[in-house]
Structures are given as structure tokens and as C-alpha cells.
Automatic annotation (TrEMBL):
Pfam families: Beta-prop_Vps41 (PF23411), TPR_Vps41 (PF23556). It comes from Scleropages formosus (Asian bonytongue). GO terms for cellular component: HOPS complex; late endosome. InterPro entries: Beta-prop_Vps41 (IPR057780), Clathrin_H-chain/VPS_repeat (IPR000547), TPR-like_helical_dom_sf (IPR011990), Vps41/Vps8 (IPR045111), WD40_repeat_dom_sf (IPR036322). It comes from the Eukaryota. This is VPS41 subunit of HOPS complex. The keyword Membrane does not apply. GO terms for biological process: cellular response to starvation; endosomal vesicle fusion; macroautophagy; protein targeting to vacuole. CHCR repeats lie at residues 467-619.
Amino acid sequence: MRYHDTMFLALGTHFGKVYLLDVQGNVTQKFEIVQVFGLYTREGFHEHFDCPVKVVALHPQFSRSNNKQFVTGGNKLLLYERNWLNRWKMVTLHEGEGTITKVKWRANLIAWSNAVGVKIYDISTKQRITNVLRDNTSLRPDMYPCSLCWKDSATLIIGWGTSVKICAVKERDPTELRDLPSRYVEIVSAFDTEFYICGLAPLADQLVVLYYVKENADQMEEEIRARPRLDIVQPLPEVCEEISSDALTVRHFQQNECRDYCLEHSEGEPLFYIISPKDIVVAKERDQDDHIDWLLDKKKYEEALMAAEISFKNIKRHDKIGMAYINHLVEKGDYDAAARKCQKVLGKNMELWENEVYRFKTIGQLKAISQYLPRGDLRLRPAIYEMILHEFLKSDFEGFAMLIREWPGELYNNMTIVQAVNDHLKKDPANHTLLTTLAELYTYDQRYDKALEIYLRLRHKDVYQLIHKHNLFSSIEDKIVLLMDFDKEKAVDMLLDNEDKISYLHKLFKRDHHKGQKYHERQISLYAEYDRPNLLPFLRESTHCPLEKALEICQQRNFVEETVFLLSRMGNCRRALQMVMEELGDVDKAIEFAKDQDDAELWEDLISYSIDKPPFITGLLNNIGTHVDPILLICHIKEGMEIPNLRDSLVKILQDYNLQILLREGCKKILVADSLSLLKKIMKLVSRLITMMQFCNICSSKRRGPGSGILEMKK
């Protein structure tokens, strides 16, 4: 009940004392009463009654309205109400069926019980509307008293012995009223229970039932009384479904009987009072915190954690369930499960993460937690990841390699780990796993040359993926042979698919013009597409490329210099010169081309094309003097034509002419000098020959006599 909006509990004893208790069970007031023959009201007025009062029920709005009414139960059911003279008026509502043991008042309905059954009285119409008879008449009503409670203003719940009935008060059809009450009662649910009912209270659509456990005749009397039970049941039309059950421990329960227990509840408050001769137990509906407590007591941490996550807005005490679960798993030795739970429990709390990592290190289980460390936007300090990598590197190369592949390189200092791997390779330089991992570290560090070197050394299948992914074609030009030895088919496919990036054929051609001659036709297209600067040198040096095909490609791409070379090589010099003059418009190149060909007709064509172009005439005047008679050009120049730098050009022609004269005179002098020198040498040789012949003639005349020399000469 409430008193001045303050919750308190009024408790009466068999010794005639009444105690007022607060919600913590502390006694706030005590009254000495020998026997209740009167009632004290809030206003302090004392009223005396003619018969002993067993039960009292106040009007539901007694403390909040002017309608001061209450009923008492003893041998009679009496209604008291204050009249306009401030005196109490008494009306007998029922009598003649024995002692009234229970009275409950809700809205305009008063329910009471006696040895015969339960009645309901409508105070608004002053009519009794029902009489629900007691089922099991074999039970003594004083030993197994009736329990009453209102669920709402129109639903009464009756418990008696092992029977429960739920009664709904309904309005009768006005057409059927006649002499009947305006309301009637319908029993909407009736079922039996296994134990004796000591008290009832509504809980939403369910019922709270206090049970006294049935006696077992096979046992001794002092052993037959068990602890009372507090159950929550779901009532159905003919049965009930048990939701929960708790056995209550109260003092001296072994000596208690059914009538020694009762259940009371405060309307509007989720509190239930279980009253026994020695104890009062306050029960309340379990909230999510209570449920989690129970799960934790049963060591059902997974379910407790799930319940906390679902009802995180409603729980008040349990903010460390996850850590308790992790601790429990660690104590059990289930380190992998404990590490796995860290992801959910620790979340984004970096401090908790680092504490757990160091704890796992202390118990030697860093490997267990390594798979679950944060590695996305949320990250720990690099030292944490490096510590774990070093741990793996000591004893588990495969696990180390797996972490390197799975962890982003930004998590740790890459150079620190590279140095650690190199230190281990000094002891075991042929370790395939460490070498592969080192290549991956180099790849992340963009040191592709070192990674490529390791992959080629290991003949690793990922070498081609590395080349393609990071465009390392320029790094493999001197490693083609190694790639061919490793996997010839893949190497050839790579060369052909990326011929624009790998200058393999170019290097082969530079080494030997004839070795790759079957590829020369293809090289023309490759040079034209990807390396034009080397196209013209290739055309000049190759003797195996098809000129017609090369000319077609160059003309399609409008490569003038290459086309000029091919036309001249194919003998069409006049067309080649025409392209130089018309498309290049370069007189110096045209003159150079005419000089190379040394063809008089080409000079005539060049002069004819240039005669109306003063810049070309200037170029010819400056360069033609040593190859063609300048008169041929000068004669074709129109009178009045302005020629840039004509004076300088004419001076140069004269200088070139004088130079030619000087050169001719010099050459003539050299020729004359050489001729005289050679003539003198010849004369000297001839004179030596004549002397020798004379000597021979003299020798012959001495041996043969006169006339033999002449004869010998004739011979």
C-alpha cells in the first residue's frame, strides 16, 4: 500500500502487534493491539465495531477522494461509508455462510470468500452478480484458504486448494436483463495444479503462483513439508504452462503449513511479498541484468554476452561480461576461442587490445591472438605487430609467411622485418619459405629488382605475375634466358604479349643482323608503332626486310624520311627528292640527297623546283658550287627576283671557285712534281740497265773473241 506517496508495508502478528516497514524491511512504527475491534483512520478518528474483524478492504480511491468507504469481513461482510454528518453508516452486504476469510476490492467490484465459495458484489448497482462454488470440499477451508486477486477491473483470479479459475466480469445484454444483474461472470480459464495454492498475483498475461508442496504419505511427518515454490505460469483455457519455478528457502519451512504462507502484491509496482511465519521475501520481476546474472552463475558466458548485446540499452550493471568470458576461456586453456572473442568484446578500445596482447604474450599464446588483431582503419601500434612477427619468426616460418601475406604492410616497419628475415637467412640461406617471404616484403617496399632476383633464383611461379603487375619489363631484358629456362612457354607468351615493352628483337638485331632475319618484317611494324627513332637505322642496316612492305607501312603512317630512304633504295630517286622538297620543305636535306645520289638529272630537278623559291635559291647558291656549275642556276634566275643574302651567296660561289682553282693548281703542281720524280726514277733505272748490258758485252768479247758480242746480241 501507499501512505503519502511513500511505499510501506503493514505487518500484523499473532501477538496483536502491527508493524510498519519501509521497502528495506526497517520498522518505522509499531502498534500494540490486543484484538481488532476498531479501526483508526488517517484523520485520527477511532471507530468501534460490534464483531471481531478478520479482513478489511478499503475503497481503491479511499485516500484520494471524498468517497470514504471500506468493507470488513468477519461473521458478516459489512460496508462502511461516511455520511454527511461525518458519521459512519454501516450496511450488511452478506451473512449466514460462516466466516469471511478474504476480501478484495477493485473499482466497483468487491470479491470475498467464505467456506461455501466466492461472491462478487457490484457496489454501483448494489447487486451480487455471481457465486463461484468451492470445488474440492474435502479440504478444510481453514487449512487451505482461498486466494483472491484482481488482474484488472473486470478479471478476478481465484485459487483454492489445487484449483485455479479466472473469471471475467462482463456486461449483460440490456434486452436480457429482466430481473437479472446487469453483469455476469464467465470462467475463461480453469485448471488444476500439482501443488496447493497459497497465493496468486497477476504478471501481465501470466500468473505468479505461490505453492505449498503436496504431502507424501510414505514419509515421516517431519519430512513431508518441502520448501514453498514460486512459479510463473501461462494460463490456458484448461491447463497452464510453466514458465519458471523457484524453490524458496524460508526459516522453519519444515513446520509450516499451507495457511502459513500468503502472497501479496502492490498494484502498479513490480513487487511481490511472500509472507511466512518467520520471514518476508520480497520478489520482483527479473530484468535483463538479473537474467545475465543467472547466465553468468551458470557459466553460460556466450548466452550472457548475446543477451547483453541485444538489451544493451536496458542493462545497468553488466558492462564487463565480455572480459569475464575471455578470462574464463583463458582459464580453461581455450586460447583460440578467447582470442576470437577479443574481436567482439574489445571492439575499438586500443588500450584493452594492447593489454590482451601482452597477456597472451605472458602465457606464450601470441600466435593464438595474431589472427584476430585489428588490421583495418583501426590499428594498434606498429611495435605490437612487430612483436608478433618476431615471435613467429623464431619458431614458425610458415605462420610468419602467412601473416606477411595477410597483414597490410602499413601495420609494421617493413625495413625492421626485412632486416630480421635477412638475419635468419644468414643461418639458413636456402630456406625457401623465408626467401619467398623476403621477396614479398621487397615487393611491398617497391624494391622490385630484389624481389625479381629472388623469384628467379627460386624459379617461383609468381615471377611472371610480379613482372606484369609492376611493369618490370625493362628489368628483365638481360634475364630473358633465365625466364626461358624456367618456363619457356610462359616466357614466350610474355615476350609476344608485351613486345612493345621488351626490346628483345632490337638487341638481337644489334648483335647480329642476320640471326633474326625471319622477324625483320615484324620488326618494321614494331619499330613504327613503338620505337620510330630506331626504324630508319634498321631500314638502312637490314638487308632482309621487304622493301615494299616497309614502304607501305611508312606511307600509311606518313613517315617522310623513312619513305624517302625506301624510295631511293628502290631506285625511285626523283620521287624521293620530290617528297623531300614538297613535304619536308628542307633545301639542305634536298641538296644532301642530291649529293648522295650524284645524279645530274636530280640536280636539274632540284634547280627547277627551287627557281621560284628565293630561300631555296639561297641554299643552292651556298652549296651547289662544288658539285654543279653555278651558271646553270644563275641563268634560270628571273630578273628582279629578290634573293635573301644574294651577295653573300655570290661571294661564297666565287670563294668556292677560287678554292677550286687553287686546289687544281695545287694538284697540278703536285702532279708535275710527282711526274718529274717518277721520270727521274725511271731514267735512273734505265741508265743502270744500259751499263749492265755494256758490262755483259765486254765480258762476252773477251771470252769469245772479236765479233762474238755482236752475234750474241743478235740472238
